[in-house]
Amino acid sequence: MKLMQKLCLFGMIMVIGLTAMAGCSDPSSEIIGEESGDGMPEKMVWSTFGVGTSTYIQAAGIADALTTSLGTKIRILPSDTGVGRIRGVTSGSVDYTISADESYFGSMGLYDFASYDLGPQSNLRAVLARPGSTTAVTTKESGIMTPYDFKGTRLVWIPGATSVNIKAVAFLAFGDLTLEDVEMVTAPSYRAGVELIMNGDADWMIGIVTSSYWYELETTDRGVNFVSFPAADDEGWERLQEITPWLYPGLVDEGPGITEGIEMPFYVNPLFLTTTDKSADEVYSFVKAIDESYDLYKDIDPMMPKWRLEDASGYPVQAPYHEGAVRYFKEKGLWTDEHEQWNNAYLEDMKTIERLWEEFVDQAAQDGTKEKELHDKWIIKLEEALGKSFPKNYK
């Protein structure tokens, strides 16, 4: 897609999203989940990443398609923190969130969720899960080509954005480095972090190659560059996956400035997420509506084709699938025995985690455990109970 076409599409989606957001400072003031005759709600509220991100553009495109095809009114609330997106859906103030790794953190009670006020969110359920990629985004003038070049550079760090920050730590580990080897430049939001890169006040940050931000950066004197993570570097990948085990090697061949494939991490990003409070019938109708509206949104953004049901119903995912989604996948012949085994195992883990957390947090309170100490102690309990490894606390 040519740059001017890309920018025009971005402008169109911005209008869609901002229109959907009009007057939405208090989502709880609106009736959400009011069902229409086709099983779809007449009104819905979604949350997702900040305005201008690739995920926001995708969410706005799908929302516009559902409004066009079914008349469903959808408001999109941007949120720059994973906790904010997850708390919105678990509290019922939004119907669905389009999120990423925070779904995994929330379901397991990791990082920011390892607190007395939060803990594991055992009612989280995946609805649709689009596979995607991520990497370190920098400029051509930075000279950063691989993770081994990160030493002494300036990293954009967004407090509270665990999904972004943990990847930065993992990418440093690929290059056998830690946060002590870089200068952390704090940004209050993702957009503010992008501005640091564009203004030359930071050297790199975590990003998706097809974001409109990087098309804009490509047109500047600094240019845009995406860091390569060679699949053949077994030791680098082993270090990375010790921190983010849900990432795996892949190849990206389209994006600003990309003329040949670049090896970089892949994972499910983003995914539609809701809770068990949503009925199976509504979620079934929701997934069906997105599937049948595909032709209306598939050309909005280069990443949209991965929302095809055949791609967005895979596993592993950062949360178990909702029973309504499973029903639709089965109807379409996309739910295999392997899906069932994986999903059931995740559900059993979450039952175990829910019981374990109740015991753990009660004992921690009795022992006077400080909140900042909860995460590392919780990790030990998780590993003992489930026999799995979990990413250690990057803080």
Please tell me about this protein's structure.
- The chain starts with a helix and ends in a 9-residue tail after the last helix.
- Mean pLDDT is 88; it is low at 1-37.
- It is 42% helix and 16% strand.
- α5 (162-174) links the parallel β6 and β7 (183-186).
- The radius of gyration is 20 Å and the shape is globular.
- The chain has 395 residues and is of the alpha/beta class.
Please give a handful of descriptors for the protein shown.
alpha/beta; globular; six-stranded mixed beta sheet; three-stranded antiparallel beta sheet; 16% strand
Percent range of helical residues: 40-55%
Parts with pLDDT < 50 across at least 5 consecutive residues: 1-37
Order of helical and strand elements: HEHEHEHEEEHEHEHEHEEHHHHH
Characterize the biggest β-sheet: 6 strands, mixed
Number of helices: 13
What portion of the residues fall into strands of 2 or more residues?
15-25%
What integer value in Å does the Rg equal? Answer: 20 Å
Structural class: alpha/beta
Overall mean confidence score, pLDDT: 88
Number of strands: 11
Give the termini separation: 40 Å
Principal-axes geometry comes out as globular
Layout of helices and strands:
Blueprint: H1 3-21, E1 43-48, H2 54-70, E2 73-78, H3 82-91, E3 96-99, H4 102-108, E4 124-133, E5 135-138, E6 154-157, H5 162-174, E7 183-186, H6 190-198, E8 204-207, H7 212-218, E9 225-226, H8 234-243, E10 248-252, E11 262-275, H9 280-292, H10 294-297, H11 323-331, H12 337-367, H13 371-386
Parallel strand pairs: 1-2, 1-3, 6-7
Antiparallel strand pairs: 3-11, 4-11, 5-8, 5-9, 10-11
Helix pairs in contact: 1-2, 5-8, 9-11, 12-13
